[in-house]
């Protein structure tokens, strides 16, 4: 409302300027702290100050001190990747902050005897506030005067019907004015309002449980325990290969030992996996932002993939909150013509401040060219009477609650009552039109009562306006195996009728239940919910209990809502989804906000989450293979005291072409497979056989080629360079095979991706500058045949590992389970 709008004259003067300043000084304002997105400092901190970045940077410094800057390239790659990660998350932050900016509404308050515009957050305790049609109540208050005020309190109660208010009644923040005007004294602001009190529990911080992050953190914890002692052992072993500590320090050979040790350490660090995870989450958030979907917690993108139960709030999700006129059905034996009925209905709805039902009638009949009739007298709708009326020269017409009007009439109208009950059971809002053809209009002002001789003329059927995209969206969820339930504060019959219209359960009729009949025990409730599709008369506390009951059945639950009454359930759910027009408190606790309130965005949201998780599983498998073979090769080097079979620059070259760049492409590929728990187990099932096969193949090459060529540990640097080149060749070829297994199926662009990176790797080794920089030597003469033989038995060893190790995996998992059970004791 704007101060320029004509408002009723009142004697209330409101607070003085001094009183307002005093309350502002005391902090008694309506200011609400919006949930901020991640800060710049936290983004930099999370990307830079990680354990493995510390290890990598330390290793790079040691290599630089050893004077081999070419082998320190891996460190610069990490710096570049971290920069990309920061830049991407900052872009995501910018996109999310831009979406989360809410347009501040101004309200008209009485201050110093004048009406002034004040932003919602500047309203203070004790202010005298004007409320008008279309406005959301910004703070709790008590009505001083009212001119036909009606409120939609569904944000608070979940009940979508409007409520007529009178002087002395309390209004709660989050309610919406649907009709009329009122003057209200503000009784509670900010954190002390009813909405804030109801959502106090929801404000407690809840960390999103991420199966992906849990799996990656488990890998990182394991690597933390493994890397440090193995690094020390590697340094000691490599010092031995150059003649021992004393000679190494005296001759400067320690430099070669340090470089060799770093090769093992760098290979074991899945640094790109952590980076790519946050990068993928950030990119998903950016893409969703383009669809007007705000992801307030990046980790929640992963939760999207696991959802198998979706609880839908009816109002604002399936319906858009508006009312529509469906039809006007004359009762049997009605004596008025259809045109007379429609004219009277239009005039009855055409009040000065029509409510939502009145506006729906005016819109529908106006589209059919019905215009204002010759009304002599009008009786506005009253919540105490439950009807409104208009008088013409020759008749009076009434519109109101069927049970109230029928009770006032003489005669047997059971057939009309049955008709009304049948329509109501189908989910309609039913009003009754009654006509008194024997009353004079001049008597109407003094005697507005209903003559018992009046006759029923027509039943008016209205319903909530269903979103055009609701049916197709629900069909998508059914196809994807996500069980949808509608949970509402409305009458179960009404909710079931709407659920049936949008084919919530497909061809089957939805099964409805009154929430007042639900058991309080969570386990019993969980059992009941398995056979229920629609719940009506649900209280806010019950919505939370319903989510808890679904959790008891091991479901991953998403919950949509827009009202304050939904906040606790949204917080309890694995994924809370708020509509853009939701109460601020509800949006604050939700992980995802559909900014434009379009239900049809949900499939995109869920599909994006599935893409992230399915692709990250591929990528994690790729990275973990490198970790496994690096760790096993390092153990083999320590046990047999041989020089490390390749250099850090080798692993940089091979890792970039077989893991880093392909992983980035694969992580962004389309994928709609629903995520199934067990991320870590599946990744290890893939990585262990592949990693073990590569490690054994490389170690066999490092052990047997020197023996066949009569080399020794202290052989010439040229011999060691050739050996390392052959081992690097073995590593590259088998890594390409692993990439091909991860990228399957190969009968598409994925096959071309594998071939492209294989070709780039081979071509690079043939370019003199690249070959020299990365110390790649193509074997010639007899050494070529030796290399080919080594590659042959390397492929055989790799294949055997793929066949044998998976058979041993279940036994290993049993040992791990037993160890965990012993540890718990």
From TrEMBL:
GO cellular component: plasma membrane
Parts of the chain that traverse the membrane: 48-66, 72-90, 222-245, 257-283, 619-644, 650-671, 683-703, 723-740, 752-778, 784-805
Keyword annotations of the record: Hydrolase, Membrane, Translocase, Transmembrane, Transmembrane helix
KW Transmembrane helix (keyword) present: yes
P-type ATPase A domain ranges (all copies): 108-201
EC number(s) stated in the UniProt entry for this protein: 3.6.3.6
Membrane topology (UniProt): Multi-pass membrane protein
Enzyme class: hydrolase
Pfam family, one: Hydrolase
SUPFAM superfamilies to which the protein is assigned, alphabetical: Calcium ATPase, transduction domain A, Calcium ATPase, transmembrane domain M, HAD-like
Family matches, as PANTHER family: CALCIUM-TRANSPORTING ATPASE
NCBIfam families: ATPase_P-type
Protein name: Cation-transporting ATPase
Organism of derivation: Bifidobacterium magnum
Organism ancestry: Bacteria, Bacillati, Actinomycetota, Actinomycetes, Bifidobacteriales
């Amino acid at each position: 409302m704007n101060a320029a709008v004509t408002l009723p004259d009142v004697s209330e003067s409101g607070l003085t300027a001094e009183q307002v300043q005093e309350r502002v000084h005391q902090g008694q304002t309506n200011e609400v702290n919006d949930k901020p997105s991640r800060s710049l400092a936290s983004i930099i901190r999370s990307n830079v100050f990680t354990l493995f970045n510390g290890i990598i940077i330390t290793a790079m410094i040691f290599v630089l001190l050893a004077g081999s800057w070419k082998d320190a390239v891996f460190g610069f790659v990490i710096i570049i990747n971290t920069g990309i990660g920061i830049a991407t998350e900052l872009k995501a932050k910018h996109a999310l902050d831009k979406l989360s900016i809410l347009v501040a509404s101004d309200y008209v308050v009485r201050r110093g005897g004048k009406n002034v515009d004040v932003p919602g957050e500047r309203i203070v305790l004790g202010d005298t506030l004007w409320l008008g049609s279309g406005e959301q109540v910004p703070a709790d208050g008590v009505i001083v005067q009212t001119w036909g005020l009606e409120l939609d309190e569904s944000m608070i109660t979940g009940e979508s019907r409007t409520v007529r208010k009178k002087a002395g009644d309390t209004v709660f923040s989050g309610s919406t004015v649907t009709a009329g005007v009122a003057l209200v004294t503000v009784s509670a602001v900010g954190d002390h309002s009813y909405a804030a009190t109801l959502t106090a529990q929801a404000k407690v911080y809840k960390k999103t449980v991420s199966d992906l992050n849990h799996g990656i953190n488990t890998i990182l914890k394991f690597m933390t325990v493994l890397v440090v002692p193995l690094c020390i052992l590697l340094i000691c072993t490599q010092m031995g290969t150059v003649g021992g500590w004393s000679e190494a320090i005296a001759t400067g050979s320690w430099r070669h030992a340090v470089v060799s040790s770093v090769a093992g350490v760098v290979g074991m660090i899945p640094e790109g996996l952590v980076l790519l995870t946050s990068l993928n989450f950030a990119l998903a958030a950016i893409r969703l932002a383009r669809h007007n979907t705000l992801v307030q917690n990046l980790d929640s993108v992963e939760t999207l993939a696991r959802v198998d139960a979706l609880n839908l709030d009816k109002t604002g999700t399936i319906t858009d909150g508006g009312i529509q006129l469906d039809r006007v059905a004359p009762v049997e034996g009605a004596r008025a013509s259809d045109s007379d009925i429609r004219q009277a209905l239009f005039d009855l709805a055409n009040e000065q401040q029509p409510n939502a039902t009145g506006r729906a009638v005016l819109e529908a009949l106006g589209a059919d060219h019905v215009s204002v009739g010759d009304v002599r007298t009008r009786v506005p709708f009253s919540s105490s009477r439950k009807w409104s009326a208009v008088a013409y020269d020759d008749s009076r017409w009434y519109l109101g609650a069927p049970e109230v009007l029928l009770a006032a009439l003489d005669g047997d109208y059971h057939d009309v009552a049955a008709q009304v009950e049948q329509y109501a059971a189908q989910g309609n809002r039913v009003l009754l039109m009654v006509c008194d053809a024997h009353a004079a209009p001049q008597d109407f002002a003094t005697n507005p009562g209903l003559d018992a001789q009046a006759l029923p003329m027509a039943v008016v059927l209205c319903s909530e306006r269903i979103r055009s995209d609701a049916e197709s969206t629900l069909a998508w969820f059914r196809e994807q195996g996500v069980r949808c339930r509608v949970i509402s504060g409305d009458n179960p019959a009404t909710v079931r009728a709407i659920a049936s219209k949008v084919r919530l359960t497909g061809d089957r009729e939805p099964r409805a239940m009154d929430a007042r009949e639900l058991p309080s025990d969570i386990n019993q409730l969980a059992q009941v919910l398995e056979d229920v599709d629609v719940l009506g008369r649900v209280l806010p506390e019950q919505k939370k209990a319903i989510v808890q009951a679904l959790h008891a059945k091991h479901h991953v639950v998403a919950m949509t809502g827009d009202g304050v009454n939904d906040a606790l359930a949204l917080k309890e759910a694995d994924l809370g989804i708020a509509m853009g027009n939701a109460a601020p408190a509800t949006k604050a606790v939700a992980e995802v906000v559909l900014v434009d309130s379009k239900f049809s965005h949900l499939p995109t949201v869920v599909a994006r989450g599935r893409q992230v998780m399915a692709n990250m599983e591929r990528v994690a498998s790729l990275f973990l293979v490198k970790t496994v073979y690096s760790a096993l090769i390092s153990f083999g080097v320590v046990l047999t005291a041989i020089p490390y079979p390749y250099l850090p620059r080798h692993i940089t070259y091979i890792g970039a072409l077989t893991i880093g760049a392909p992983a980035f492409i694969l992580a962004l590929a389309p994928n709609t497979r629903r995520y199934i728990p067990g991320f870590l187990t599946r990744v290890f099932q893939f990585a262990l056989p592949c990693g073990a096969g590569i490690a054994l193949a490389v170690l066999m090459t490092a052990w047997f080629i020197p023996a066949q060529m009569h080399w020794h540990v202290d052989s010439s640097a040229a011999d060691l360079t050739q050996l390392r080149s052959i081992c690097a060749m073995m590593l590259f070829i088998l890594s390409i095979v692993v990439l091909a297994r991860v990228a399957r199926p190969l009968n598409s662009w994925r096959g071309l991706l594998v071939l492209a990176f294989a070709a780039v790797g081979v071509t690079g080794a043939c370019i003199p500058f690249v070959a020299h920089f990365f110390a790649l030597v193509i074997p010639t003469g007899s050494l070529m045949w030796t290399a080919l033989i080594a590659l042959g038995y390397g492929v055989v060893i790799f294949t055997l590992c793929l066949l044998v190790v998976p058979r041993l995996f279940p036994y290993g998992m049993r040992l791990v389970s037993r160890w965990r059970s012993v540890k718990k004791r």
